[in-house]
Write a structure and sequence with these properties.
- There is one protein chain.
- With about 280 residues, the chain is mainly beta.
- Helices cover about 5% and strands about 65% of the residues.
- The protein has 1 helix and 15 strands.
- A 14-stranded antiparallel barrel has the order 1-2-3-4-5-6-7-8-10-11-12-13-14-15.
Length: about 280
């Protein structure tokens, strides 16, 4: 019961005050693909909670939102199950909320190799409130409120220090695709370097390529830096504060045309892992 109580407290802190959606990619997913790929689960902790809260530098800018992903291994099996939610506010007139469940299974292919597959489904709720709009000289109240089932599929492969993952997500006539890879290089004295490459594709939007790298000391700390082709510079900090809790902070700096929408986006994240 103590483990469950800790999980519920963190869910409340990160997710009650937010509004959001799964199809808006969180910057931390570049460095933490488990946030959006249901198959990216390489640890053996019996309980895990990932959560992120994002907000812009300016109070009147968008987007804002948060997400959580609570995952548990089924004792004595290679199966895992999870509950996840995304809460997004693209503007003062647009809100999306999503909640669903995931299921994953893993195979050990050898001493240094493993394969995982994952799937999920749930409800995605979209709400737009444009207020009164003049149509043919008449003011009409233009509102949109619709709920749809969504589905997601993912696979992840690990061989020694190489990790590769693919996932897709769709509802109604919308879809997205995400691919990621990371290779960990041992620099000695507990130091490691991890080049990362990821790609996101969205319906009706240009694909986004991310080129990043992370340097870290054991499990205690990591610093990440990279560039995304949607004109964002990504900076990540990770710190392990205890045997069960990792804290994350990310800043995405807008350049080019993206700076017309926002200047900076901040994200705070946690990973709570309990054996």
């Amino acid at each position: 019961m103590k483990k469950i109580a800790i999980i519920l407290i963190f869910l409340y802190i990160f997710c009650v005050p937010t509004e959001a959606q799964h199809d808006v990619r969180y910057g931390q997913s570049i460095f933490r693909p488990e946030l959006i790929n249901p198959a990216c689960r390489w640890t053996n902790q019996s309980l895990e909670l990932d959560a992120v809260y994002r907000f812009p530098w300016e109070k009147n800018q968008s987007p804002r939102g948060g997400m959580f992903n609570f995952h548990a291994m089924i004792p004595g099996t290679s199966w895992g199950a999870g509950i996840r939610g995304d809460f997004y506010s693209g503007s003062s007139i647009r809100h999306n909320n999503q909640v669903g469940m995931t299921l994953d299974f893993g195979w050990k292919l050898g001493e240094d190799a493993a394969l995982k597959v994952g799937a999920g489904t749930g409800i995605n709720k979209e709400e737009y409130n444009f207020g009164d709009i003049a149509i043919n000289g008449t003011n009409e109240d233009e509102n949109f409120d619709e709920s749809n089932f969504y589905a997601e599929l993912g696979t992840a492969f690990r061989y020694a220090d190489l990790q590769i993952g693919f996932s897709t997500y769709a509802y109604s006539d919308y879809y997205m695709f995400f691919a990621n890879s990371r290779y960990n290089i041992d620099l000695g004295r507990k130091w490691k370097l991890g080049p990362l490459v990821s790609y996101s594709a969205y319906k009706n939007f240009d694909g986004i390529l991310d080129l990043n790298s992370v340097i870290g000391y054991g499990q205690l700390a990591e610093i990440g830096l990279g560039y995304s082709t949607n004109d964002l510079i990504n900076i990540l900090f990770k710190a392990r504060t205890s045997s069960i809790l990792d804290l994350f902070f990310q800043c995405s700096l807008a350049t080019g045309d993206t700076s017309d929408l926002f200047k900076k986006i901040y994200e705070f994240g946690i990973k709570l892992h309990i054996d």
